Each structure stands twice: as C-alpha cells, then as structure tokens.
Amino acid sequence: MRWKALLGFGLAIFVICIASESASAYVRYNPQGPDRLLFPGYQWTVLADTTTEELICMRWIIAQNPTWHYAHCQRAEAPVDAWVCTIADDIPDAEVTYQFYKASAVSACDLNGNTSEWTSPHTFDTVVDSITLNKPNLQTPCLRASLMGLLWVICGAIAIGWRHHQR
C-alpha cells in the first residue's frame, strides 16, 4: 500500500516540475544596478526564457536628458538562458533609469514591434562611490518554492486520507 503513496508523491512532483517550468516566463536581473562596471560603460547579465525568434532588449534614460536609449543584448554562451546587456558609454555623475524587455528578433527592439515581459524600471547613480556591484540574484524563483511547499501539503493530506481510508 505504501508504494501507491510513493507513486502518487513521485507523480505529483513530476507534474509540479513540468507545470512550473512551462508556466513561468521570466526575465531576471540584478535590480540594484550593473553587475559589472566597464571603463567606459556598465553591464548586466540577464536570464530570460527566450525563443529563437526573440531578443532581450534594454532601454535606459539619463535623468538630465529626457531621451530614451535602446539596445539589444547579446546572447551569452552559458548558461543557455543568459544575455549580456551593455550601456557602452560612461555616464558621469548622473542617475540612470533602466528596464529590460523581450522583443521579436524581426523588430530589433523597436517599440512599434512585438514586445513583452517588461521589467520594472530601476535606477542607479553613476557617481563612482555610489555604484555597488552585487552578484545578481538570478536563482530559482519563489514560485517554485511555494509550489513545492504546496506539494508537500497535498501529499501529506493524501497520505493521511489514505490511512483513514484503510482503517
């Protein structure tokens, strides 16, 4: 009888893993500012579940200049979902607001094309003393952890119900 509970538990884990992989689109990055300070420029590593027909794009605006700048990011070699996004210019003593988004490869990051999954805008200050280069928190999303917790609760309820049914 225990093998049925174990089989059900294994099947539930499999279904949760498959469902969470396919249902959670993502664009993850370090919201605290650039991962790498270049001389000149700033660089981020962005993880995203893109298809071969999609790009990761970046836009940024400098507080003293109300013009948005756009660039497409370059696909990194590893991990498979990594993109490297760069602001190539040095921006002295300014506040920079930036966002990432997905775009169709045909549109080449043009906002009139097909865009999706815009991140929240974030700001960093380019005064040299204020830039902190933190390793991005690009690990497993909280959704997976909460689904695993829910799975444990469901499996526990099934096991308890099965025991009461056997009596």
Give the strand tally: 10
Going by CATH, the architecture of the largest domain would be: Sandwich
- Radius of gyration (CA) equals 22 Å
Please identify the top-level CATH class of the largest domain.
Mainly Beta
Going by CATH, the homologous superfamily of the largest domain would be Immunoglobulins
Give the DSSP E fraction (strand runs of 2 or more residues).
25-35%
* Alpha carbon gap, first and last residue: 13 Å
**CATH fold call of the largest domain:** Immunoglobulin-like
Structural class: alpha+beta
Calculate the mean pLDDT score and round it: 78
State the helical fraction: 25-40%
**Overall number of domains:** 2
User: Uncertain spans, ≥5 residues at pLDDT below 50?
Assistant: 19-23, 131-140
Question: H/E order of the elements?
Answer: HEEEEEEEEEEH
What does the largest sheet look like? Answer: 5 strands, antiparallel
Described by the principal axes of the CA atoms, the overall outline is elongated
- The number of distinct helices, counting runs of at least 4 residues, comes to 2
What report would you give on this structure?
The chain is an alpha+beta fold and 167 residues long. The chain folds into 2 domains: 1-24 and 141-167, no CATH class; 26-139, Immunoglobulins (Immunoglobulin-like, Sandwich). Helix content is 28%, strand content 31%. The chain is built from 2 helices and 10 strands; from the N terminus they run αββββββββββα. It has helices at residues 2-23, 142-166, and strands spanning 27-28, 36-37, 42-48, 54-62, 65-72, 74-75, 82-87, 95-104, 115-116, 122-125. The strands form 2 sheets. Strands 1, 2, 3, 6 and 7 form a 5-stranded antiparallel beta sheet that branches. Strands 4, 5, 8, 9 and 10 form a 5-stranded antiparallel beta sheet that branches. Strand 6 and strand 7 form a beta hairpin. Helix 1 packs antiparallel against helix 2. The protein is elongated, with a radius of gyration of 22 Å. The chain starts with a helix and ends with a helix.
